[in-house]
Amino acid sequence: MLLNEMILVALQSIRANLFRGFLTMLGIIIGVGSVIAMVALGTGAQHAMDDQINSLGASVLTIRSGRSSHRGVNRNNVTLTLNDAEMLTTDLSTVTDITPETARRFQVKLGNNNQNIRIVGTRTNFSSVHGYKIAAGRMFSLADDAAKRRVAVLGHDVTTKLDKSPSQLIGKTIHIKGITFEIIGVFEKKGTLGWQNADEQIWIPLDTALFRMFGLKAIEVISAKVAPDSTIEKAIVDIERVLRREHKIMPGEDNDFSIGDPREFFNVRQAATDVFAYLLASIAGISLIVGGIGIMNIMLVTVTERTREIGIRKALGATRFNILMQFLVEAMILCMIGGSVGILLGTGIATAMTQFVGWQTIVSPAAISIAFLFSAGIGLIFGILPARKAARLDPIEALRYE
Nearest 10 degrees: CA dihedral of 12, 14, 18, 22? Predict the structure, then answer.
């Protein structure tokens, strides 16, 4: 019996019991649809994360003051200084730009609107180091910093908190800790950095922050942008060498600072995303297995219903292999039809998640091909038992079957 004849007979058999065939394929449809949707969601999340890493600056190291101990004795919390930032700028070739930062939370008032917002004191090169772009107005200048002017640049989401558009806020005055500041710029939306929303902050000149707002002479954070021709590992070693020298830390003593690698956070986040994706894929895989069991069950019923037909075919010369292949092809066609419908369903779900929920999804041709081949494999695996049962029927007993 030729393969095209087997396929034709299989299609005729499915058409004769169309509703039962649909119910049989339902498990495969749901399983394949779930796999396509989950893989699309996972791929989209990966691309979104890659874009976010590039946007937030995967090559920016964060140096923070820290507490240390030596021989069981805790040392006081030694803060970083502006001199540390200057030394890193002049002594290192592995970093291209350095910006010191310090921050506090204060009440911010605009008219009758009062919000508690994080205020960041930094240098004018903050935007170039971290990749921020101005949506309206301008960034404060070196002259603003040197003169300790009371000017401020708002994060994108701060404008929402203040119930104003970026263009409406330029030139307006806000009160930070009771001190008047002029709004000179608003940043474009940046996204979440670590566990903190980078768009819910206000930036002011560092000298203004240190001497007019915070009453400090030290800084909390130094951000260092790694040079394109260097590596993060080499930059960390160089930064540690310079700061240990400036802080007069003896060999064997712990650092009184810490160097944060942004890749650590993204690796943890990626691991969590992968676990979630594997979990969802496992659930979808279980659906496929359940669908395969349904295929096997209905094929066993089909063998029983067509016992007399099998006997007639064997009497006319059909071999065990012919019967085996006939029922195996029917099981695979059922699964492949279900897989095709499932692919359409999964693609539709992924599109709906993008349009209505706002999640980024990407349906890749590789995922479609794998899902289709996997559905065919389910038909092959779960169709073997019914096909072997049909092939082993005794033709005389089959012809007597009523």
Answer: -150
What's the pLDDT at 287?
74
Q: Could you give the CA distance from residue 212 to residue 147 in angstroms, rounded to a whole number?
A: 11
CA distances from 390 to 115, 150, 218 (A): 76, 87, 84
Q: How far apart are CA 32 and CA 119, in angstroms?
A: 50
Distance of alpha carbon 344 from alpha carbon 356, whole angstroms? 18
Are 381 and 292 contacting, i.e. CB atoms less than 8 angstroms apart? Answer: yes
Residue 187: partners with Cβ closer than 8 Å, 6 or more residues away: 127, 132, 133, 134, 135, 153, 154, 155, 156, 199, 203
The CA-to-CA distance between both ends of the chain, in Å, stands at 26
Backbone angles phi, psi at 214, to 5 degrees: -95, -25
Query: Distance (Å, rounded) from C-alpha 76 to C-alpha 246?
Result: 16
In the block, which residue shows the tokens 């940043």? 187
CA distance 113 to 10: 72
- pLDDT tens-digit series, residues 204-243: 999 999 888 887 777 888 988 888 888 888 888 888 888 8
Where is 181: in which H helix or E strand?
strand 179-187
Torsion of CA 294, 300, 304, 309, to 10 degrees: 110
Burial group, residue 54, by CB count within 10 angstroms (0-12, 13-18, 19+): exposed
R_g of the chain, CA atoms, integer Å: 33
| C-beta of residue 98 within 8 angstroms of C-beta of residue 61 | no
- Residues 69-87 as b/e (b if ≥16 CB within 10 A, e otherwise) read eeeeeeeeebbbbbebbeb
What's the confidence (pLDDT) of residue 377? 86
Task: Give the strand pairing for 257-260 and 192-193.
Answer: unpaired
Q: How far is CA 379 from the centre of its chain?
A: 33
Q: In 10 A of CB 49, how many CB atoms?
A: 15
Look at residue 124 and give its three-state secondary structure: coil
Instruction: Give yes or no for residue 5 having a pLDDT over 80.
Output: no
